[in-house]
Amino acid sequence: MLCLAVLALATWEYRMRQIGLQADDIGDGRGHWSVERRKLADSGPDAIAIVGASRILFDTNLELFEEKTGMRPVQLALPGTNARPFLEDLAQNRDFSGLVIVGITEVSFFREGLGLYRDALEYYRTESPSQRFGHLVHRFLSRFLAFIDDNYGLITLLERLPVQERSGVSGPYDQVWKLSIAEDDRQTYLWERIETDAFLRDHARHAWDDFRGDPVSREVIDSVIESTRRDIARIRERGGEVVFVRPPSSGPVLTNERLRAPRSRVWDRLLAETGAIGIHFEDDPRMTGLDLPEWSHLTGHDARIFTEAYVDVMIQRVDWIQQRLREH
Predict the structure, then answer these.
(1) Number of domains in the chain
(2) DSSP summary character for residue 279
(3) Confidence class for position 9, pLDDT limits 50, 70, 90
(4) Could you tell me where the DSSP H helices lie in the chain?
(5) Domain of 53, in residue numbers
(6) Is the pLDDT of residue 178 over 70?
(7) Quick one: three-class SS letters along 25-50?
């Protein structure tokens, strides 16, 4: 029986590697996020934290960022999740006096709901020793075994078998499937199969149809800008700073975002009323025309180009960065 079990696992592992899974893809989730959040506990005044949704997560190359500035950001962005609670968390943390880079996806930032990882902060604050241990075990095994990827578990694959759904019912094809690979420090890249596999790429594009909706209301915009302004003021009082970065999108995704959250109503007002520096991909030729296979996230190669471009702008325009570079 043991030999059969080992053979079955080896066969499954081989199959998963054949379809593009990697043994060094350690995954992501609340446990991984909590590890990074704890790094800020004793990071000092030179800390850099990145909050936002999946674009700033996928589109920032941490190693390149560190090469250019001598400082490695703590990656706290979460897919499908509103950045505002995490900006507020840092604003209320009296020990934090660093730089916050807020990745802006307008329809995520300017909404009332919190999104996919709405409980990340609560998990971080209440994580038990057994949960930490379980996370360490999973991370260790992930370095050697590709098949334990949550997106390709046997039950998950069975649920995705093509069946005829009832009219008006959302099925597995409408959900977001595997998009990324993740390394240490939550360094995340767009999965290469999204670039090379037409079926997976088309599926990812289809999944973004769920983000259609009505334009963001004036009341929500006013409320979001006011709460953000207060959070920025708190961080600045301690010597910190906040910078907004709007990563690229394209195709129908960008069209939808322009309809729901026009730049003049959200981005321009956000900068004007908070006094923060903003870096928008449309304002820099180096950040436009980059490869977005599913219209929303850059390839790993082009994420380096985008990172270099937006870090260059910060070096030129952000006093907080300039001061640290002089000191180092």
Answers:
(1) 1
(2) E
(3) confident
(4) 2-18, 30-38, 54-58, 62-69, 84-92, 106-109, 120-126, 129-142, 154-159, 192-196, 198-207, 218-237, 251-260, 267-274, 300-317, 319-327
(5) 36-115+190-327
(6) yes
(7) CCCCCHHHHHHHHHHHHHCCCCCEEE
